[in-house]
Write a structure and sequence with these properties.
- The protein has a two-stranded antiparallel sheet.
- It is mainly alpha-helical.
- The chain is 58% helix and 7% strand.
- The protein is built from three helices and two strands.
Length: 113
């Protein structure tokens, strides 16, 4: 498969995991002692690209968030989560557009049927 498509697929996977994680954080915003989570895949992707690989060997993963804890012991900031959701949704739209553009180019060149 095309290296650009592999990279895009990895990024889309990471962005989808991030959106799912944000939704999970928001759903648990009022759960006592719940700690927010986040997804970091960009650093692994950047390292792989710098070393000449299209994708990292490890899949995107969920890690502990860094929000402050409130009186109930919960560390979900709705404002931060909504900002992250908006940002990730826009990034996902850009990635899908780029992916579709690349597929259209391959189809026009006769590389995809």
């Amino acid at each position: 498969m095309d290296p650009l498509l592999n990279t895009t697929e990895y990024a889309l996977s990471g962005l989808q995991l991030r959106l799912d994680t944000v939704a999970h954080n928001i759903a648990n915003a009022n759960t006592p002692l719940y700690r927010s989570q986040k997804v970091d895949f960009e650093s692994s992707l950047a390292d792989a690209l710098r070393s000449g690989h299209a994708t990292p060997t490890n899949a995107p993963s969920v890690i502990a968030g860094e929000d402050l804890v409130d009186n109930a012991g919960t560390s979900v900031s709705i404002e931060n989560e909504l900002t992250e959701m908006t940002k990730s949704s826009l990034e996902r739209q850009v990635m899908v557009s780029g992916f579709n553009y690349k597929i259209d180019l391959l189809k026009a060149a006769g590389g995809v049927r």
